[in-house]
Amino acid sequence: MKYANNIAAIDELSASEGVFTTAQAQRLGISRNALSHACKVGRLERVAHGAYRLSGAPSSETDELAAIWKLTASTAFSWERQAKWDGVAVGGSTAAWLLGIGDFHLSPYRIYAPERINSKIESARFGVRNVDEGDMAWMGGLPVTRAERTLADLCLDCEDPSLVEGAFRDAAAQGLIDSAKLGSLLDELGENKRRAALLEPLARALSASDQKGRS
User: Fold this and answer.
1) What residues does the AbiEi antitoxin N-terminal domain cover (predicted)?
2) Residue 3's pLDDT is what?
3) Do 64 and 31 share a domain, yes or no?
4) What pLDDT does 21 receive?
5) Do 114 and 209 belong to one domain?
6) Angle of helix 147-156 relative to helix 161-173, nearest 10 degrees?
């Protein structure tokens, strides 16, 4: 592909994806050498190994998170993954930060997948967990677990119960919690004694909230 065509293709990919992967670029005929050259001349910035963004374009503090999520299925375009749910979701403490509930940090990035993901990315913590499509919502192009699922996963990730309770209060105050849905989720996820014990602080918080609502 000629240099001018590479520039046009890179601009097109950046417009549709924001942060994009090497594999996505190759699907449009953009070679690794072309990406490397674009970085050298300052047209592109490397966000993570195998992921780039256009220099000068508005940046976001979630760019690295977007890169890591896209690298879990590096050849697929975001619209393809939105059209067919693959089960890879941003959850736990990272989802709580994105939802604005509790006192958690954006990173290390917590990402769940139905199967083990082998990665050496130090800023990411991958976990094997099944997330139903109905338990997540797309936020800024990322699949983020909804408040009910986020709270449950915080428990399963062994986060401090007091932090989970704080996140519950924030979510309730923002109207993010469907009590019936959360109750069903707790029953579903508390499939054994260990999990049920981990989820107990959230179950207590839900029970107290329901009782307060009825009084």
Assistant:
1) 10-54
2) 58
3) yes
4) 99
5) yes
6) 180
